[in-house]
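Dear Dr. H.,

I hope your travels went smoothly. While you were away I took the liberty of generating a structure for the chain from your last submission, since the lab meeting agenda had it listed for discussion. I wanted you to have the full record in hand beforehand rather than looking at slides cold. The sequence, exactly as received, is reproduced here:
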Amino acid sequence: MGDRGKKVGFGEKGVISPEGLDALSGENGDEGEDVLERYISSAIEIFKNNILLISRLKQKGLPWREVITVLENALPDVIDAQDRNKVAHSIVPRALNEVFSNDEEGWDTEKRPRKEGSGTTTWIVINKKE
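The corresponding predicted structure, in token form, is as follows:
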């Protein structure tokens, strides 16, 4: 079968390597569609259309980690798990801005006590216009 179907930047299992992420994002000077941007835009659309999640965010807020998980799960499996987590973490502000940055609402973060153990957890809260 040889190299037929093999893609540059993909690991043995067809998962995109860190070098492959650079290629997808167009950082190597390649012209054409930015595949990583398409994946990110799709993940943000899935986030935006998650009515239950958006409702929970508006009511009580959510831990930052929970939003990362939703975005991470919306990214395709061709990106390896570690890189999906990094990408998801980096796009949380963008996703929140796309949903909550109109004239009536905005978003912020606050520290809340952890449910278990000591320390705090970062929560995302929605600012309501009064």
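Two observations you may find useful: The helical segments are 18-24, 35-48, 51-59, 64-74, 81-100. Confidence is low (pLDDT under 50) at residues 1-14.

With kind regards,
E. W.
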